[in-house]
Write a structure and sequence with these properties.
It comes from Ramlibacter ginsenosidimutans. This protein is α+β, with helices and mostly antiparallel strands. A hairpin with a 5-residue loop joins strand 1 and strand 2. About 20% of the residues are buried.
Length: about 425
């Protein structure tokens, strides 16, 4: 199947085309109306002239042939129908209709005006072909200013559109000449009011990108720092294994090395998970039963809990269906359970609960561990932060991953003291609309 290419278009060209087509249409329409109006006005003027000539002849003013003599014919009839006067050899038809009429004499179309008086009947005729030619000349004279002004108007409109779009061109040049790392705000000086929201949104985008780049730079620096310590420890443990004098010492060094490798793998996996989260699009929502989700998370971490003789289970067992991202919620539960297993002393207890209240659905992981001092709660979501005085070894990334995923879901993570177990209660508050 052929790949469809995205069509592009020019705002300037489209505006010019639409406006010029509109001007052209209006010009043609106006010219047509002016032409027909001028023809009608000329026709009335020529009829009036015929009538005036007839009245002049009736008043005794003789018809004086001039430049237009070939267009007119004058004929005077007596009461008995005899011809008293004829201005040329064309003999007009006997008057049958008073006032204006059209006739054809010797192949020539004529416009005739007939005036009857007690003494005689006067006929004034005008060559219709010559009359219409003169009318067209007059009509064209009325239309020409409109046709001449249209191109000037089009040029003026083109200049106005070009000037109106100039701020966009300046903005394009301003962005095109920037260095890759230059995310300073665009200047809105001289920008039209309609374009200012776009400039504001671009500046907001630049600010978000700047924050992201800074966060990534800090993340890379922190990751390098955090990886240096376990890698150094692995090197020392490997050297200890190489220098071991007997099998017992060598086995102890290998065991320590294996544990260090496992911790390093866990750290790298968490780093990769956090990096993928920041560059990954939002997960598609689906119908989820929170009870089934909690059981799945418990089954995945049950072996680790049993290794420390921890009682891990569900505090509530009732179906609760919501619409959200299954993968994201599982990732949150896994990290909360990993934290609880890591910091809860052997023989302790970890519960997963879920429910719904006035705020909406929620998930909670509670443990019987030492909890987190209230003063440290605001900082535990920071990357690589570990609570001072903690004996458990951790990367300081678990809660950072939890917060990142929760924010993508529009959820909140609340930490506090567990009323039932005495340790930490980590509660995920899902938005009410996912219910």
């Amino acid at each position: 199947m052929a790949k469809r290419t995205a069509t592009t278009w020019s705002l300037r060209r489209r505006l010019l085309t639409l406006v010029l087509v509109a001007i052209g249409f209006v010009t043609v329409l106006q010219a047509g109306i002016a032409y027909r109006s001028a023809l009608g006005e000329a026709d009335r003027m020529f009829d009036y002239h015929l009538e005036e000539v007839a009245r002049s002849v009736h008043g005794g003013v003789p018809f004086a042939p001039g430049e237009d003599a070939s267009e007119y014919s004058v004929q005077v009839w007596g009461p008995d129908g005899t011809t008293l006067y004829r201005s040329n050899r064309k003999e007009l038809p006997a008057p049958a209709v008073l006032g204006f009429s059209d006739s054809r004499v010797q192949g020539v179309r004529l416009r005739i005006y007939t005036l009857q008086t007690p003494e005689h009947t006067i006929q004034i005729a005008q060559d219709l072909d010559a009359r219409e030619a003169r009318a067209r000349e007059l009509a064209l004279g009325a239309v020409m200013p409109v046709l001449l002004l249209a191109p000037l108007l089009m040029l003026a409109v083109g200049a106005v559109i070009g000037g109106s779009l100039a701020p966009l061109a300046r903005m394009r040049r301003q962005v095109a000449t920037r260095a890759a790392r230059d995310l300073s705000p665009l200047s809105a000086e001289g920008v039209p009011e309609e374009v200012r929201p776009l400039v504001g949104e671009l500046n907001a985008l630049f600010a978000r990108v700047q924050d992201t780049l800074q966060a990534q730079a800090h993340f890379v620096a922190d990751a390098a720092h955090e990886l240096r310590s376990p890698l150094t420890a692995l090197k020392l443990q490997l050297q200890a294994a190489e220098r071991a004098r007997d099998d017992t010492a060598r086995q102890a060094a290998i065991t320590a090395l294996r544990a260090g490798i496992e911790r390093s793998i866990g750290l790298v996996e968490q780093l990769l998970a956090l990096a993928r989260l920041e560059g990954k699009p939002e997960q598609a929502s689906e119908a989820i039963d929170l009870e089934e989700l909690a059981r799945e998370a418990v089954s995945e971490r049950l072996a680790g809990a049993h290794a420390k003789q921890l009682d891990l289970g569900l505090a509530t067992s009732e179906p609760l269906r919501i619409t959200s991202s299954r993968e994201s919620l599982l990732l949150i539960l896994r990290n909360l359970l990993d934290n609880a297993i890591k910091y809860t002393p052997a023989g302790g207890r970890i519960d997963i609960a879920h429910g719904r209240d006035a705020e909406g659905p929620w998930l909670a992981v509670e443990d019987s561990g030492p909890g987190i001092p209230e003063a440290e709660l605001p900082r535990v979501f920071d990357r690589f932060y570990r609570v001072p005085g903690s004996d458990a070894e951790g990367s300081g990334l678990g809660l950072a991953i939890v917060r990142t995923v929760a924010e993508r879901l529009g959820a909140q993570v609340r930490l506090g003291r567990s009323a039932s177990l005495g340790g930490l209660r980590a509660e995920l508050r899902l938005p009410a609309e996912v219910s």
